[in-house]
Amino acid sequence: MTGRFGVLIPAYNAAATIGQLLHDLHRYLSSEHILVVDDGSTDATAAVAESARAGVIRHVRNVGKGGALRSGFHYFLEKTTLDEVVTIDADLQHSVDDMGAFLHVRRERGANIVIGSRRITGSSMPVHRRLSNIVTSYLVSTRTGVAIDDSQCGYRLIGREVLRTIETEEDGFTAETELLIKAARHRFRIVSVPIQTIYRSGKSHMTKWKTTREFVRTLMREY
Q1: Residue 54 belongs to a domain with what CATH number?
Q2: What are the two backbone dihedrals, phi and then psi, of residue 190, each rounded to the nearest 5 degrees?
Q3: By CB distance 3.0 to 4.6 Å, which of 8, 141, 200, 201 could disulfide with 72?
Q4: How many other CB atoms are found less than 10 A from the CB of residue 213?
């Protein structure tokens, strides 16, 4: 992999998985390019990340994924000169081996944002998650005027030029949708790239109905 990029991991009570993820990332990146934002975890997430030599920002209380991402984006803008940031979830549902594809698409297609596109049909993803992804991706594509295959995927590459221009306001999961809406409005190039579909059973930190309400509100909001 080539390029001057960093990796941002928003994490909440991810002590069981964050160590393995960081081990995998260290095959490609040095410690100073990896940042974990511990969003008010009540377990040993921060301690595990620190022992794995990752940079760590700790939130005193749980703010939400959007708040964690915002803290990380600010860090990369203010403390580094890296050209892009790759965001990856802490629960091992993404493969670090796919990062090269993000960087390739960024270079070859002049993309400002590259979003991972998980294969939905024929995967181990539960039916309700498949339907949710299909519907939300259709709605976000309609709202932005950009064909986005998997709008809810947290595995993304975001160029520094986007982070300099766009400030998100949402604290929860809908911040990822907000970012796409604002990026499309600023005419940034958003491209999808196929990635592996890895689904691991476990407790989700998403509150189903609350997240749905927030998604609809974000989709309808005029930014």
Answers
A1: 3.90.550.10
A2: -110, 125
A3: 8
A4: 12
